[in-house]
Design goal:
The protein is mainly β. It is 0% helix and 46% strand. The chain contains no helices and six strands. The chain has a three-stranded antiparallel sheet with strand order 1-2-5, with no helix packed on it. Strands 4-3-6 form a three-stranded antiparallel sheet, with no helix packed on it. β3 and β4 form a beta hairpin.
Length: 67
């Protein structure tokens, strides 16, 4: 599984598979069981970047899924 790195506020980076579309999901509470889709990301190389422009204030937990 990819290891997510928070490079800057709202900017996530990970190593993945090239040309694969990832779904980036988030939630604001560790106790919650539902994840909301924040967007998708893909890259022609194995380095993938995602900018989360929505609600970047406060705690936000992220995960990346792929088909």
């Amino acid at each position: 599984p990819p290891v997510l790195n928070m490079v800057a506020k709202g900017l996530i980076h990970w190593q993945g598979v090239s040309n694969l579309t990832y779904s980036v999901q988030s939630r604001t509470n560790i106790i919650q069981t539902n994840w909301l889709t924040s967007g998708t990301a893909s890259s022609p190389s194995n380095t993938v970047w995602f900018t989360n422009s929505a609600n970047t204030n406060g705690l936000r937990l992220f995960r990346v899924t792929y088909p």
